[in-house]
Amino acid sequence: MKDRAIASRRRLAVALLVVGLVAGGSAALLWSATRSALGDVPMSTSPASSTLPVAPVAPAPSPGSTTPTAAPLQDIAGTPVHVTVLQEGARLIDADVNRIQLDEDGWLSPDQGLAGWYGPPQWETVPGNLSAYRGIIVGHNVTGYGTKDVFYDLGQVRAGDSVVVTYALQAGGYATAGFAATQDAQSAPKQDVVEQAATTYRWVWQVDAPERSLALFSCDLDAPHIDGHSVDNWIVTAVRVS
For residue 199, how many other CB atoms are within 10 A of its CB? Predict the structure, then answer.
């Protein structure tokens, strides 16, 4: 029993998210690997934002300056409930979000028509809150009926495009945070994203220093398929700007 518990904790400590297309629909597949294969990369136990340093306070304006000082960004005590991606004012993505967890088979599968935030207790990062790990939001690109789903256009995202996340606040009401895509949507082999998570594809999951960021995932439908599964993912990373 002890060995089983240790193995279970080790599996969860290095679980990696990969969005996969399955026959008859799409789903987000959580791949698992051993710590020896990936190194010390505790993907499913990202540090809670409350344990990280507070964002630095912006410097006061110099005497006589009329330029207002921007307020420092703060953590948001709330739950993501909507995500929008805008490109030159046009909406590429506009989806409600609910919190999802791994099922007993190790899958993350948001409902059709919804995006899924991989949240606590399995992944601690709230998108936009200070963390060394990115917040994770996933979505299907097609439904089980073959029609477009909420992240169908994720591969169209370009550097500088706007991502807006809306939160339901714990204190009541709503708040929004704005993000800017840090690069064009990247198509990456799912297997490599898993096996090279501590090296080549570390940028997908972690940042060099705590920041307020997120990663969006969906399948690349233009990639080759094996047994109905797309071999690649679209990945969009974004950093909070407001």
Answer: 11
Tokens 């020896």 belong to 36
CA dihedral sign, ordered 106, 31, 29, 120:
positive
Give the domain range for residue 154: 10-48+99-159+181-236
Structure-block tokens of residue 146: 């073959």
Reported as a single tens digit per residue, the pLDDT across 155-214 is 999 999 999 999 999 999 999 999 999 999 999 887 888 789 899 999 999 999 999 999
211 is a domain residue: yes
Position 74 in a domain? no
Domain annotation covers residue 107: yes
Task: Please write the tens of the pLDDT for every residue from 51-75.
Answer: 322 233 333 344 454 545 557 899 9
DSSP 146-177: SSB-TTTTGGG--TT-EEEEEEEETTSSEEEE
Q: Is 211 within 8 Å of 239 (Cβ atoms)?
A: yes
What span, in angstroms and rounded, lies between the C-alpha atoms of 219 and 223? 9
Total-model pTM? 0.76
Extended strands (E) in 43-185: 78-87, 90-100, 107-108, 115-118, 131-133, 135-138, 162-169, 174-181
Q: Could you tell me the two tokens for 57?
A: 């306070």
Alpha-carbon distance 124 to 219, whole Å? 24
